[in-house]
UniProtKB/TrEMBL annotation:
It comes from the Eukaryota. InterPro entries: AB_hydrolase_fold, CarbesteraseB, Carboxylesterase_B_AS. Residues 30-543 form the Carboxylesterase type B domain. PANTHER family: CARBOXYLIC ESTER HYDROLASE. The keyword Zinc does not apply. It is an enzyme of class 3 (hydrolase). GO terms for molecular function: carboxylic ester hydrolase activity. Keywords: Disulfide bond, Glycoprotein, Hydrolase, Serine esterase, Signal. This is Carboxylic ester hydrolase.
Length: 558
């Protein structure tokens, strides 16, 4: 103990601060990988009146830079290197889809964090974080949401960076440019982790993939991809699914051609489009793509999907998504690993979504069939009939434009709850599924003025990561419980392997072979932990009844 304290004091004395971690240039650690040696950092950080040891590797390249002829191509594994590679400092984030354009194309790096000095005999469980951001923004860095609490549970935390927006998901709908390169980046990153994590102290047979929002939809696609067999043993999905309408692009080849036209590229052949777009400056390319995306979202209905997201590919050797997810899950064509998944109590509440739908509420009032999901595959006359029942169910006689809170409920149900519940039902026929509903309204996300009741999209992350926001003892207790549940699942594939006083002696049984989504059991995460039936049952029964009576298979989403 005296020796460790001495090391901590030395580290703090000779250190400088990066991203709220105290990092010393004098203390490094070198690890062998299949590609060459990497030099990581070894430091300490003062947190909650104590010093914590941290080992970090923040810029490990797992692919060749996706530039030049590798732009819009599946990732190529990184060539071996001979010198020791310094990976202590963070890499650039991938080019962001938001304005102004930021980031770099050379961005395919992964991060590894641990409380323990790398040792191939440790065999610690590993969780791989896949970040969200609607597939057009985000990064693998933990700048404002540190993974300290999971690290303290003796879990190794890794994160994979992947291409976003047009650069990550451009597609022409053919084998020249099939798309989904962002998902393929994730797969290659997972392969690297599987092959090398043992030398960092991790157990390659205890890897959990975990994502939130678009990251959760990514995890769902990774569950379905044949290329990921054996790469992970468990999956966690916070607030997202491959059945969510926003997780699958509907007219991506058309959007790609519009970007090309905006850049004065001849669109006669796919090969010409691809080669010409590879010559354009990356930021100029992204600016054109952002312009097309905004135009599309204004003109098309955002309830039916986004623009530059995963897409159905034609069949070819590297294809990762070739069938609708609903058909795959129904047929059990996914990796049958334990799954933990759920959502917050008001997923329709977050600022970016509110701004997007503000442009559309008047259109919904003018033409109610816009409220009907396209994935039901209905004839116009049936759509018109169903539209009125949807309008009445959610908004009554009031105009939608005057019903902000009800619109948020509608968005939560159609974009998150309904598709996630259907995915859980389909998963349950083949594997154990732990469903949760997060309804604890606390301040740790930074939302203090609650004008609407309910926990918004992403708020639950503040009860797993450290956002450095002060709260009450009850807030901290809730966070301890959530961290323990997630850590138990990462370690054992079961969030409550035994009764614990911290978890109020609750045993979370999970779901197996659930024929109807309304029969799912959830863990309600609030001031207390309770096993309950499906949340928001009235609305979910309404939707399930509509799909059973009128929906026409196959469903592209749900």
């Amino acid at each position: 103990m005296v020796k460790i304290l001495g090391i901590v004091l030395l580290l703090q004395a000779a250190a400088y601060c990066v991203d709220s971690y105290i990092i010393s240039e004098d203390y490094t650690v070198t690890v062998d990988t299949n590609y060459g040696k990497v030099k990581g950092g070894f430091g300490a950080r003062s947190h909650a009146n104590k010093s914590e040891i941290l080992y970090w590797f923040r810029s490990i390249p797992f692919a060749e830079p996706p530039v030049g002829n590798l732009r819009f191509a599946a990732p190529v594994p990184k060539a071996k290197w001979s010198e020791v590679l310094d990976v202590r400092h963070k890499s650039q984030e991938c080019i962001q889809g938001s304005s102004p354009v930021s980031g770099k194309e050379d961005c395919l790096y992964l991060k590894i964090y641990s409380r323990h000095r790398p040792n191939k005999y440790l065999n610690l469980p590993v969780v791989v974080w896949i970040y969200g951001g609607a597939f057009f923004e985000g990064s693998a860095d933990f700048d404002d949401h540190r993974p300290d609490f999971l690290l303290n549970e003796d879990v190794i935390v890794a994160a994979v960076q992947y291409r976003l927006g047009f650069l990550g998901f451009m597609s022409l709908g053919d084998t020249v440019a099939p798309g989904n390169n962002g998902i393929k980046d994730q797969i290659l990153g997972l392969k690297w982790i599987k092959e090398n994590i043992k030398n960092f102290g991790g157990d390659p047979n205890k890897i959990t993939i975990w994502g939130q929002s678009a990251g959760a939809a990514s995890v769902a696609y990774l569950l379905q991809a044949k290329q990921t067999k054996g790469l992970f043993s468990k999956a966690i999905l916070n607030s997202g699914s491959s059945l969510s309408p926003w997780s699958l692009a509907k007219d991506l080849p058309d959007a790609t051609k519009e970007v090309a036209k905006k850049l004065n590229v001849n669109t006669r052949t796919s090969s010409n489009i691809l080669e010409s777009l590879r010559q354009v400056d990356a930021k100029e390319l992204q600016e054109a793509a952002s312009s097309v995306m905004k135009q599309k979202l204004i003109l098309s209905n955002p309830l039916q999907g986004l623009v530059f997201t995963p897409v159905i590919e034609p069949n070819h050797d590297d294809a990762v998504i070739t069938e609708y997810s609903h058909e795959l899950l129904k047929g059990g064509k996914f990796h049958h690993v334990p799954i933990l998944a759920g959502y917050t109590s008001l997923e329709g509440y977050f600022e970016e979504l509110a701004a997007l739908f503000r442009l559309w509420v008047a259109k919904y009032d003018l033409y109610h069939p816009q409220l009907v999901p396209d994935d039901m595959n209905l004839l116009p006359i049936t759509k018109a009939i169903i539209a009125e029942s949807i309008k009445n169910k959610y908004f009554g006689i009031l105009p939608i434009a005057l019903s902000t809170e009800k619109l948020m409920r509608f968005i939560a149900d159609t974009q998150f709850e309904k598709p996630i519940q259907e995915a859980l039902r389909l998963y349950s026929a083949y594997t154990k599924v732990y469903a949760y509903h997060f309804s604890y309204e606390g301040p740790l996300w930074g939302r203090t003025n609650r004008t609407y009741n309910g926990v918004g999209h992403s708020e639950d992350l503040a009860y797993i990561f450290d956002y450095n926001i002060k709260g009450s003892e009850e807030d901290y207790l809730t966070r301890k419980r959530v961290v323990k549940l997630w850590a138990n699942f990462i370690k054992y594939g079961n969030p409550t392997p035994k009764r614990e006083s911290l978890l109020q002696n609750v045993i979370w049984p999970g779901n197996s072979v659930i024929e109807k989504a309304e029969n799912l059991e959830f863990l309600e995460i609030n001031s207390d932990l309770k096993i309950k039936g499906i949340p928001n049952e009235d609305k979910i029964l309404f939707w399930n009844d509509l799909y059973r009576k009128y929906g026409r298979l196959p469903y592209s989403t749900f």
